[in-house]
Amino acid sequence: MLRRQAPQPVDTAEEALRWIRRRAGQWEEDAAYSFAVVERADPRAVLGDITVSAVDRRHSTGWGSYWTTKSARGRGAATAAGFAVEGPGPDGR
Description:
The chain is α+β, with helices and mostly antiparallel strands and 93 residues long. The protein is built from three helices and three strands.
């Protein structure tokens, strides 16, 4: 659960933006890559985050994780973000 990873709950769009901004250093270190999950109709409305970490370039693998705000849960936002970042699986789904 995110509460084990975050110093405070991430339940609002403002808290989500703060979480995502703190990840910028990981990009610079080539350690992990976080992407904002936003509302399609209003990209300023943050719904969550999807991150690829533990990147192993030799084997082209990484660990995918995500979280969503309460308002985004059950709407398929995390699934759509996963496909956007990682692409469909070998079976096309």
